[in-house]
Amino acid sequence: MASVKPKQPHGGQGSLRIIGGQWRSRKLGFPEAPGLRPTPDRVRETLFNWLAPHIEGAKVLDAFTGSGALYLEALSRGASLGLALDANATAISSLRHNLDVLGCSVGQLLQSDAVRYLETQTPTAFDVVFLDPPFHQNLLPATCALLEDKHWLAERAWIYTESETRPDALPMPANWRLHRDKKAGQVYYSLWQRG
Description:
Number of helices: 5
Strand order of the largest sheet: 5-4-3-6-7-9-8
Shape: globular
Low-confidence stretches: 1-11
Largest sheet: 7 strands, mixed
């Protein structure tokens, strides 16, 4: 007789694992919420292989941080400073708790709408930017234009995007070059370099 796996109680909590760096293999919780879809381990591993020569010492912006998976991975791998933005107070609170658990002092968090923040705040030139906005809201093109037009990017910045649209169909700034891209399920993930 096959054993039946008992159902786990649903507490509205997901978990993510940091893949590499100083916090490698650490498991952390994050709140489950509509539209919150952490970048899968396999995709994160590919991305950080692409970014390996550029992440240590980098200033990193995660504009729609959600679970914080990309942000935490970058900090674990030696980013010198990180800023994570999210409009969801629960997501930011959970990420603040995770930074405390990890003893991280170089991570900054703000509960803020990313587009509004990029429009109104004094820019810092970031070396690496992660953009995984909610889908079907046309947020990616607007955010990319703001990053470029408002001077949020270092001269040779790297920009990672997740989208429901093929990268060659996205209206990206003219001076961004598509470096690498792949597809996982229905999601296109791409790495761009500012040139």
